[in-house]
Design a protein that fits this description.
This protein is an all-alpha fold and 206 residues long. Helices cover 71% and strands 0% of the residues. The longest helix is centred in the N-terminal third of the chain and has 34 residues.
Length: 206
């Protein structure tokens, strides 16, 4: 008959404890695919804009009518606002990595405030440009299509940040698991990079 070996559950186990299991970063990977698709959409829109501008310069020698204003001051301030928001959203990622919840919430709130400021600035810019879809259809339709789509992206980025902020308030993110905040930051950085391209193509080079 085989002898029965009794194991003392209180006995010390030799060696260090096993490392904690890593969790799948599904949200981070999914966000990467979504941002890549959105970036391709904007690249296509800007390519169409550049093609129309080049054709207009060849055909009539001008792209922007005399009664249309494309100021640079407001787009510059909008660009600066978004650059500042890149630092604040990354501040949130750094804070949650250190389990600093107070700074995480503060950084997310400041990021949303900067995004709201950008939207207000864009509304003021629209009032200055005086674009008319009837009199300047190619120019007006393309600028509204590109900037309007980007406006929808920044609103979706704000919603993304708010949702991740609520999840952080519920205690779902820690220094070990913070992929939601990191995914929101990645989406935010891509949104800013896309506006930098819009700013350069439409308002700087004109």
């Amino acid at each position: 008959m085989a002898a029965t070996v009794l194991v003392d559950p209180t006995a010390a186990v030799d060696g260090p404890p096993p490392p904690p299991e890593s969790r799948a970063r599904v949200l981070l990977v999914g966000t990467a695919f979504v941002t890549a698709a959105i970036a391709m959409l904007f690249i296509g829109l800007i390519a169409v804009y550049l093609a129309l501008r080049t054709q207009a310069l060849v055909d009539v020698g001008s792209w922007i009518p005399a009664d249309v204003v494309l100021p640079l001051t407001q787009p510059n301030m909008m660009m600066l606002t978004l650059v500042l928001s890149m630092f604040t959203v990354q501040w949130a990622v750094s804070a949650i990595k250190n389990d600093d919840r107070a700074n995480t919430y503060l950084a997310l709130a400041v990021t949303l405030l900067l995004a709201f400021s950008f939207i207000v600035e864009e509304g003021y810019l629209y009032s200055l440009m005086k674009l008319n879809l009837m009199t300047t259809p190619p120019l007006a339709s393309m600028i509204y299509a590109i900037t309007g789509t980007h406006l929808a992206m920044i609103i979706s980025a704000m919603i993304f940040v708010m949702l991740m902020g609520f999840r952080a308030l519920a205690g779902q993110f820690t220094s070990r698991q913070h992929d939601g905040i990191a995914a929101a930051a990645m989406y935010w950085h891509v949104m800013v990079a896309i506006y930098a391209l819009i700013w350069f193509v439409i308002f700087v080079t004109k």
